Amino acid sequence: MFAVIKTGGKQYRVAANDVITIATLEGEAGASVTFGDVLLFGDGEATQVGTPLLSGIGVTGEIVQHGRTRKVIAFKKRRRQNSRRRRGHRQDFTVVRITEISAGGKSAKAEPRKAKKAESAEPAPAAAE
Fold first, then answer.
1. Which residues pair with 41 in a beta bridge?
2. In whole angstroms, how far apart are CA 22 and each of 5, 41, 67, 85?
3. How many CA atoms, within 13 angstroms, populate the side-chain half-sphere of residue 77?
4. In this structure, are residues 14 and 37 in contact, taking their beta carbons and an 8 Å threshold?
5. In whole angstroms, what is the distance from residue 35 CA to residue 101 CA?
6. For the chain, which terminus, N or C, has the lower number of CB atoms within 10 Å?
7. ATP-binding: present as a keyword of the record (predicted)?
8. Which residues are within 8 A (CB) of 2 and not within 5 positions of it... i.e. 6 or more apart?
9. Residues β-bridged to residue 42
10. CA–CA separation, 58 vs 114, rounded Å?
11. Per-residue model confidence (pLDDT) at position 85
């Protein structure tokens, strides 16, 4: 089950348990967000295309973290004019994990993440000589 959502002026194809990086959203890490602008929905059997949006389909996600991208430098120089300009820009972003896609009676939920097992501190057995 997948959906195409629109947020921040861009479109993203998402499925349950996907992690996407999008434009900044309001909210703290761990908060739940709902995306209302669903453009396309597919459940494996049929695909629904919105004109322009679909109603009755919801995509829910959880904010993982907020951050900023690496700095991009815009440098302009006009030769022999003693004219230079240097500007930097860092774009803000939000990382979101898609937790559920629901359509009517159908729902695709993300399975909870399993904690990694800590490796035992026992040394490997030595080879017999």
1. 3, 48
2. 11, 20, 11, 30
3. 5
4. no
5. 10
6. C
7. no
8. 13, 14, 15, 41, 42, 101
9. 2, 47
10. 25
11. 96
What is the residue extent of each domain of the chain?
2-109
Q: What is the pLDDT, as a whole number, of residue 124? A: 54
The single-letter code of the amino acid at 27 is G
- Residues 97 and 61: their CA atoms lie apart, in Å, by 5
pLDDT along the chain (129 residues), means of 10: 93 94 94 94 89 91 96 96 96 95 76 57 57
Alpha-carbon distance 56 to 15, whole Å?
17
pLDDT at 43: 87
Say if CB 100 and CB 108 are below 8 A apart. Answer: yes
Give the whole-angstrom CA distance, residue 9 versus residue 101: 21
Bin 42: left if φ > 0, else alpha if -120 < ψ < 50, else beta. beta
pLDDT at 64: 96
Nearest by Cα to 87 from 101, 75, 69, 103: 75
Q: Kindly tell me the burial class for residue 95, based on how many C-beta atoms sit within 10 Å of its own C-beta (0-12, 13-18, 19 or more).
A: middle
